[in-house]
Design goal:
Main location: nucleus
Distance between the termini: 99 Å
Low-confidence stretches: none
Order of helices and strands: HHHHHEEEEEEH
Organism: Mohoua ochrocephala
InterPro entries: RNase_P/MRP_Rpp29-subunit, RNase_P/MRP_Rpp29_sf, Rof/RNase_P-like, Rpp29/RNP1
Subcellular location: Nucleus, Nucleolus
Pfam families: RNase_P-MRP_p29 (PF01868)
CATH class of the largest domain: Mainly Beta
Amino acid sequence: PQGSEKAKTFVHAFLKRSMPKMKDEAIQDMLTRKAVVLEHYPKKKTKQKRKKTKGFTAKQRRELRLFEIEPEQQRYAIFLPLHELWKQYIRDLCHGLKPDAQPHMIQGKLLKADLHGAIVTVTKSRCPSYVGITGIILQEFKHVFKIITKEDKLKVVPKLNNVFSLELDGFVSYIYGSKFLLRASERSAKKFKLKGTIDL
C-alpha cells in the first residue's frame, strides 16, 4: 500500500491528466470537498438493423410444390363444405342478398371478394373447349383459376378471353376475366370502374 502523500500525488496527477483544462486551484478545491466528477463521453451505440425474414422465392415454392393439390384430394365432394362457407361469407358481406338489393352494390362487393369456394361457369370463351366448365374455385392466381368439376377433374382455366358466371341465391354475376387479371390480394384494394358491354 502507498503512503498518503504518494496517493495524493497520484490522484492530483491523474486528475490533471484527465482534466487538462482545469487549473490546479480548482483541482485542489475538488479534492478538499472530496467530490470528483470525471468527464466521460460514452461511445454512440450503433443501432443494429433488424433483418427482414425472407419468404420463399417463386422457384422455391415450385420446387416444394406448395400450391399443388394431391390427386387423391382432387374430389368435388371434399370442397362442398368450402362452398357452403363461401356462400355464408358472401351473404354477410352483402348484408343478405335480398330481392330489393341494388345490383351495382352487390356487383361491386363481388369484384373485391375472395372467390375461393365459389361455383363458377365459363359462359363465353374464345376457346370453345372451355365453355360449359362448371366447378368450385380452389385456387386463384393472377392469370388463371383452378376449378374442380363434379367429375372430380381439376381444370386450369385462364382468365384472359373468358367470361365466368357466378350464381348465388338467384343473383347472377358475370366476371370478365380479361379485366380480372389480378391476384386476390391486389383485387381487394383496386377500384373498378363500371363500364358498359365488354367484348372478348
